Amino acid sequence: MFFKKHGKAILIGLVAVIVIVIGLLVFRVLNFIGDVQATRVSDDITTQAASQSFEQLTATAQAKLCAASASCTTTPGTNLPSITKVTALTPTAIPNPTATPDTSNNKIVQRIKNGDRISVLYMGYGGSGHEGEYLTDTMMVLSFDPKTNTVTQFNIPRDLYVSVPGGPGGTTWKSKVNGILSTIMKWDKPTQDDLDPKYRFTNPQEQQAAGANLAANTVQGILGIKVDYWIMMNFNAFRTLVDKMGGVNVCVDRAFEDDNYPVNDNDQIDASVMTIKFEAGCQVMNGERAIQFARSRKSNSEEGGDFARSARQMKVVAAIKDDILKKNLVGNALGYMDALQGNLRVSMDPGDMFALANFFNSSDGKTIATSLKFDPEIMTGNNFIQEVDKGGEIGYALIPQAGEDKYGDIQAWVKSDFEHAIVRRDNAYLQVLNASGIQGKGGALTDYLYDQGFRMSETDVAALEDETYLIDYTNGAATGVLGQLQKYLPKMKVYTKTADKKPYVGAPDLVLFLGKDYKGITVP
How many domains does one find in the chain? Predict the structure, then answer.
């Protein structure tokens, strides 16, 4: 049977392709049939299909999966291209589960084989019963580069004040970026004349798809990259899925406490707050605990604020990917299907998923799935964003340091991150200590390495050393950084140690001592 034979490949393959890694779409794919087919964003970012009912698409899948189990029962159920139209198609046909589809010429598989980048916008929102149910307070772009097997993650700060290109002819209105979906979902004007035709809708499925497409097009203009697909998931799906996984193993970098975490997501029901605490170290979190870790933003420590929260959200996504690859999750397919009913929307069609399953059942695909690395990149007030007070209903907001709608620096940063993914994805900080006795050498090398994508700590001086050497507290894990440094400094000695041997809390991951023998670097 195709699904029994290739089920694990579907799971791992989609994870590796990033589309799954982002929003736990992988669990929806466990039904081995179709998807919550929403507006698909094709190669030229034109919408090809509108969303259909999860229940309709999974009813047949549930029946087929249940057929193998006597105890199972079923329940019926910037100048980037922009999205141009929202159209509804008839429900996707269910493929014959005993046959292997011919997917050799599938476009997305060919793009991966050709090394073409694939980018996905993930949006997390509260959902029904939550205050601001369609505010996408979690927004991140995950961009998969098959050439380096790297997923680069970019946060989109929820309070970023943007021009939304949703009006006729590309005219814009101003909004916080997290309110774009909500604007469309809460549309209360008597007509849709104020919307560009490609964002108009005739039913709830098209309405949500139009909002997601508009958010994706807006994000394209911010980052300067093409968004190929989008995924939306609400809190209920996230909680349930993590619980059905048996929890997710997350490594907490710093202990923190939040005394103002909401007891209820809707303060109209309960406006009280409670205290949540997280200790440093790796720990298994259930669904609610993972939500708390990913949502907390009112700690008085370094973990307070939206930027730290974005970093934690990226950490949870990466942890989920790791657990998916480590655990055999196929056996609980129906449970995951039930968890996602009505809680997940995606813009990838079933045909692409089957094609990916075939590809990732190959040796090349399995290599990608198991060796995928993540590069978390955070847009903060320390690099590209500044706080402003817009007054009125908007109040506190964020804009680029260069000014409203001026994204040139951000787009240059994105481009640089892509170019230097091999060293960026190690997420390891390097410090240069000048032990040569010649002033300025440490600073000059630090500046050069920073321009080459290295994450650099502030340089300093050290006691004189005859030879140049590196202390690696990652115990060899920072392979990209080590490899590139050895190209620059082929005679450099390397001493590996474990992280617990760092001289102080928060010390750099690697420390390079420039000795008297340092005459400069070798440029590869």
Answer: 2
pLDDT in tens, 458-490: 999 999 999 999 999 999 999 999 999 999 999
Question: Residue 314 phi/psi, 5° resolution?
Answer: -65, -35
Count Cβ atoms within 10 A of the Cβ of residue 388 and give its class: 0-12 exposed, 13-18 middle, 19 or more buried: middle
The CATH number for 92's domain is: 3.40.630.190
DSSP 170: G
pTM, full prediction: 0.76
SS3 348: coil
The domain in which residue 456 lies consists of 426-514
Task: Round to whole Å and give the CA distance between 398 and 393.
Answer: 14
Find tokens 């794919």 and name the residue: 29
Which residues of 184-285 form beta strands (DSSP E)? 229-234, 248-252, 256-262, 273-278, 281-285
Hey, how many other C-beta atoms are within 10 angstroms of the C-beta on 262? 15
- What does the alpha-carbon distance between residue 82 and residue 219 come to, in Å, rounded to a whole number? 11
pLDDT reading at 141 higher than 80: yes
pLDDT at 11 over 90: no
480, two tokens: 């990209």
Q: Is residue 405 one of the residues assigned to a domain? A: no
Tokens linked to 443 = 């600073």
Pairing of strands 469-472, 493-496: parallel
pLDDT tens digits, 502-524: 999 889 999 999 999 999 998 77
As given in the structure block, the two tokens for residue 378 are 């955070």
Q: Give the torsion through C-alpha atoms of 352, 353, 355, 358, to 10 deg.
A: 170
Looking at the structure, tell me whether residues 376 and 490 fall in a common domain.
no
Buried-exposed string 15-53: b where 16+ CB fall within 10 A, e elsewhere: bbbbbbbbbbbbbbbbbbbbbbbbbbbbeebbbebbbbe
Q: 156 with 94, same domain?
A: yes
Instruction: Flag whether 415 is in a domain.
Output: no
Average pLDDT over residues 5-13: 40
Residues 6+ apart with CB under 8 A from 311: 155, 376, 378
Same domain flag for 350 and 438: no
Which residue type does 366 have?
Answer: K
112 and 180 part of one domain: yes
Give per-residue pLDDT as tens, 157-185. 999 999 999 999 999 999 999 999 999 99
For 337-367, the pLDDT digits (tens) are 555 666 778 887 777 767 776 787 778 887 8
Mean pLDDT of 30-49: 33
Query: Looking at the domain assignment, is residue 110 inside a domain?
Result: yes
Task: Tell whether the model's pLDDT for residue 269 goes beyond 80.
Answer: no
Indicate if 343 and 210 belong to the same structural domain: yes
